[in-house]
Amino acid sequence: MAQETDETIAEEKEAEVIEVKGYRGSLINSTIAKKDSQGFVDEVFADDIGKMPSQNLAESLSRIPGVKINREVTGEGQQISVRGLGPSFTKIALNGNSMAIASDGSLGSGNRNREIDLDIFPTELFSSLSVSKTAMAHQLEGGVSGFVNMRTARPFDPGSQTFKYSLEGAYGELRDAVSPRYSAIYTKKFDDTFGILVGVAGANTKSRVDGYEAVALFTDGCVAQWSNPEHTGSSCVDGSQGLNHFFWSPEATPDYAAANPGVNVGDAVDPVATSGLAADVLDTALLPYLGRPMFTYGSRDRVSGLVSLQFRPNDTMDGAIDIMYAKASKDFVRTEAMWWGRRNYLHQGAAIIPENLTVSDTGYVTSGTFYNSHIWVGSHDYQEDLDFISVMPSFSWQATDLLKVDMSASLTKSEFERDEPYVLYMSPGGTLQFENGDVPSFSFSEDPADPNIDWTWQQEYDQNQDGTISEDEKFGDMFRIQRNHRETETQGLHFDFAYGEAPEYSGFKFGLAWDKNTSNMTAFGGTAVFTDENVKNSDAYNNFSDYIGSSLVSDLGSGISGYSGYSGIAQVDWDRIRAATNYDSFEAIEVQGDQFGATVGDIEEEIFAIYIEANTETEIADRALRMNVGVRWVSTDQSVATSSSNTEASYRKMLPSLSLVYDLMEDVKVRASASRSLTRANPSDMFPNASWGGSGIETVNAGNPYLSPFEATNFDIGGEWYFSDLGYVGLTYFEKEVTGFTRSDSLIVSFENLGDYGIDIGNIGEDREQALLECGGPSQCTATVNTRNNIDGSTILSGFEAVWVQPLDIIVEGLGFNVSATSIRQDASDEDAIITGISDLSYNGTLFYENDVFQSRVTIYHQDGSASYYSNGKEVFSFDRTQIDFSASYNLPTDMDMTLTLDAYNLTNEPVGNWHEYEGIAFNAFYPGATYTLGLRGSF
């Protein structure tokens, strides 16, 4: 009886696989997959992936409940996170195998942990995406928050046409340019035993993003005073309460004197009186720290290819080899016009005079006039190259009626190069009007877009009033060397066995997995050497103004609500600067940290895991109950190194899991699951960048390669009501207790054990040898190691996910909608365990209509703002963001299968950005504009 039941279930499951036709068809397949799943799993299928206005796989995954998207400043999706935890806590797999990508994350940041950028993967080359939100024993460990499997297209996929293609042109309203996109997939089958699929997809994206940034927001208001008659330094008046990053001038500047008849340059000025504020208010008023309107301008080329060979010699064997290659390059300029309000010293002629300031109740300056302001321009010339390749052979063999064997191997390699030279130059002093809005507006008496306003490579100030600017009267950086190199590699070998007539329902699974993952990060600098040897000997140093040209944009901020500042920024001629300084021949110097202030190094992990699962089905009250119970044992050996030290660590973990599905009614399923999951510690916290904290042996500063992994205990309960082939409603409650968080800590360590933290105790120098002798020798002496350490605290994440898929054929044939929403709250036992980046509420919904020739969809995505990180003890939290997209297609009335498509992306020009402490105080904001894509798709 059991055998007959199992065979019937398997046959019914096979019969339910349908050929995808249109968005509605893809939703039906997603509904079937959801209904048949064990645990809490959501899937997106081929048509849904390929025919929505999704620029990459990250966008497609964002439609799944509980999945949040992290966006590049262009607005394009780049990384995903599941149920609140960040991208490093989600395990991303390609065809069930581990993968890594060497790309460096979004503009202005750097991937340092386990993030995977998905923006190089085009939707056209994938057949399905699956997100498991609770762990099962057969899944690769590494995702505390979830497991995502991306399945590439294969020759024997249902509905594979011989040839599919697309040609598109995407118009970006901000760049006012058309970006071409293309794809082509050829499939050939030979006698149903062998098939080959070859696909390619690419794009040349011409982009422009306008925005605003602040490095930080500090209290300021420090009134400067001369420390000696030679004007060689400045300091704050006694009693100042500010952080002393901005300086108010105590004497009249040229523009202030010009605006106030009877006042001469150098006359005494009381900045407290001119500001219109009380002294204590001025002293602590908040201004942006290097607040800067900015833009990026350039292009990105991306091409991805897929070759899949599939061999089915008989009904019991299925072999495949999937090879994917992706290459991406960026060539763009990022230019920022900073208001110089950082260490603007009086002796450099840079202190400012405030006039008629207004300050909010929260202490932020909301408007005012500032004399002797300078615009400090920074221009980056980005050149990026990324290569990725994966080779994944697999073989499935139904060895007997009861035993099935699956074998797979994998190799992924990725390499990334970023060259980011940075030139800085200074405007003359002038009067600036500041007004806060959605982003602050800066109006300057000089036009920053004008290349002819006496730009200088450094701030120049004639301190001794002799009419000549000497070398020691020039201040500030001119040129910074910033280069990064990253390499990643993953290797894997997996064996999976299933025993039973229908082992997914009644039987056993067991297997083993070996994986090896490496990541090598290198940073290069050499600014001081380059400045002395290349810059100061160049024509550009003596004639810098000749190397400044017109702004690349003439309508800066046109897409920013309420902005009324600069219309452009005078642009350094990068080709001429590179040539004049012989930049391309400079041998950069390897350094310990990158331009983001993060330590770089190498990490290698070798992982061995074994698992066993049991599936069974029984009846309770004449209703089916399915159960999956399993355990995964995993061993991890880690090696973490910087250029000067290397450490190793190992640990073993047991990860049990349990999932239940009960047919409460014929079309009502109730689910429950419990599991343990892990994510290995952040490499950025593990690098053993150890150094002595002084001339003695008392203190050592070090990373901690012995950090324990993040671990989570997960519980889910929920269910769905399937009221039609397409329609269902579902509700899930989840709870996740996460441990493994770290804090800065100090440990007392025996001198003999300091080698464990990367210190060479055999070569410490004469002074430390003497200190070691005085305290009693290696066996008696101890040192304080300042590092990061795991805390005992935990965070409990809990929340609800809801989904509703509803056909509306009763109103209009072909009409329908699908919506999903996720709410999350957290309860941290320790402030160091507070998780940033959690949106309290996120939702997305699609209203669709389709018939035989026409399809259309309107989609809305919303994420509440969330705490992103902290800047000088103040919370930085992201904008609430609601994006609206539109997609439509029309089957042309020809004998060929040809479809005209129209996509509109980010119709309302939603920005990507953060507030600083309070809503309305912009920390950064990037406005990418809307994109409209017209294309032609076809197949034959």
Distance between the termini: 46 Å
Number of strands: 53
SS summary, helix count: 12
Give the mean pLDDT. 88
Backbone structural class: mainly beta
Question: Could you list the spans in which at least 5 consecutive residues all have pLDDT below 50?
Answer: 1-20
Overall geometry comes to globular
Percent of residues in β-strands? over 45%
Helix content: under 10%
Q: What Rg do the Cα atoms give?
A: 31 Å
Major sheet description: 22 strands, antiparallel, barrel
Domain TonB-dependent receptor plug: 34-137
Protein name: TonB-dependent receptor
Subcellular location: Cell outer membrane
Pfam families: Plug, TonB_dep_Rec_b-barrel
Structure overview:
- With 940 residues, the protein is mainly β.
- 10% of the residues lie in helices and 52% in strands.
- The protein is built from 12 helices and 53 strands.
- The strands form 9 sheets. It has a 22-stranded antiparallel barrel. The protein has a 5-stranded mixed β-sheet with strand order 1-6-7-4-5. Strands 18-19-23-24 form a 4-stranded antiparallel β-sheet.
- A hairpin with a 5-residue loop joins strand 18 and strand 19 (365-373).
- The chain is globular and about 100 Å long.
- Mean pLDDT is 88; it is low at 1-20.
